[in-house]
Specification:
The protein is an alpha+beta fold. It is about 50% helix and about 10% strand. It is elongated and about 125 Å long. The structure holds zinc ion (ZN).
Length: about 375
């Protein structure tokens, strides 16, 4: 009471002012310091949200030492963050998955190492990995997943197929990816790819109403017989060049058949079924919707003189040269198990020069190429 009286109001105000000023300077200093710290982290590539968490958890020096790291960023952004797994996060390869950190935590608990976890994450979608993480640790992980095109969701099918067929890991992966472990024509993948990369097999059906966008009629002088034959424009342009070049070397190649509509295929299918029975059509005739001829990219070739193409010099020439024009021999004898079709010496398919050359040089069939390099969407 007495003290209060002794102090003059002016002096009291001044002291309050000093105190407040000092506090303010400390606060401003702290804010500047904080923003500078955060700035350093965001400069490094961390998001504001992650940076705030890094500072809150006092992990700045740890993070600065590691540098930019997307998985670490995701970990600090995530409510699933676990401090004890910090070292793992920084060593696991990032994938843009919604439950990335949660799945990493589960996989660590399942005793997978960092490399294995990176491998698992890179071979499936967020959902695939979430499903996979539910199971106990599996064997043969490295054996399968060193291949880029292995899919984590197919793991059980790989194992079953390998046991059943005795194929090696690589063939197992390719063949399961193109659904060879499934029954033909049952639950097919539906495709609406109109490009020359479209894959049609006994397991991949063209969408209802599928019709090539750019069909042209092939000049009759290139056709064997009287009927009008159509094909996809670019495919035909390349085939024409091929036939013309072959002619300069004394080969007479003609087109027997090319584009067939769904309705045409129904007709052919029924006709052959009536003539030769179920077994024959299963081997040689595509079920409507499953025929490459419906894409406009499939061509049945013939020699002008002989009736059996496979015994002609034209056949030999075409096998050796067609890849230069963008065509693959679609159903060779050596790959009946994969294509599901008995040898069709006459059937060539346009896929473009680059792919055709790769397929030819590596002695593959197009199904295999597709499984290895193009089948990303259903990863
Ligand atoms: Zn054909």
């Amino acid at each position: 009471m007495g003290l209060k009286k002794k102090l003059k109001p002016k002096k009291t105000l001044r002291i309050i002012g000093y105190v407040l000023g000092t506090i303010l300077i400390i606060i401003i200093g702290f804010i500047i310091f904080y923003f500078y710290e955060r700035y350093q982290l965001t400069e490094l590539g961390y998001t504001v949200k992650a940076s705030d968490e890094i500072l809150k958890k006092f992990k700045k020096s740890y993070v600065m030492e590691i540098g930019e790291n997307k998985t670490l960023n995701a970990a600090f952004e995530s409510s699933d963050y676990k401090e004890k797994y910090l070292d793992n996060y920084s060593k696991i390869k990032y994938q843009p998955h919604k439950h990335l950190i949660k799945n990493i935590n589960t996989l660590i608990k399942r005793k997978y190492n960092n490399n294995e976890i990176s491998m698992i994450l890179s071979h499936g979608t967020d959902e695939d990995v979430t499903e996979f993480a539910k199971r106990k640790q599996v064997a043969y992980l490295e054996e399968f997943f060193t291949f880029d095109y292995a899919k984590i969701k197919n793991y059980d099918r790989y194992l079953a197929y390998m046991n059943e067929t005795g194929e090696d890991e690589e063939n197992t992966i390719i063949q399961v990816n193109i659904d060879l472990d499934k029954e033909p024509y049952k639950d097919p993948v539906i495709t609406d790819d109109y490009s020359c990369k479209v894959l049609v097999t006994k397991h991949r059906k063209l969408k209802d109403g599928y019709k090539p966008k750019d069909l042209i009629t092939i000049p009759q002088e290139y056709v064997k017989g009287e009927e009008k034959v159509k094909g996809e424009r670019v495919a035909w342009q390349n085939l024409k060049r091929m036939i013309d070049d072959a002619k300069k070397e004394g080969m007479e190649i003609l087109v027997n058949s090319a584009y067939r509509s769904y309705e045409d295929q129904v007709e052919i299918y029924n006709e052959y079924k009536g003539l030769y029975g179920d077994e024959y059509v299963a081997k040689y005739v595509s079920t409507p919707g499953f025929s490459e001829h419906q894409t406009g990219y499939g061509f049945d070739l013939a020699s002008a003189k002989a009736n059996v193409f496979s015994t002609t010099k034209e056949y030999e020439w075409t096998i050796q040269n067609s890849s230069k024009y963008g065509f693959v021999h679609r159903y060779p004898t050596s790959s009946e198990e994969i294509t599901g079709f008995s040898n069709e010496s006459w059937h060539f398919r346009y896929v473009g020069k680059k792919i055709a050359t790769y397929v030819y040089e590596n002695k593959l069939v197009y199904d295999e190429y597709f499984a290895m390099f193009l089948d990303k969407e259903s990863n």
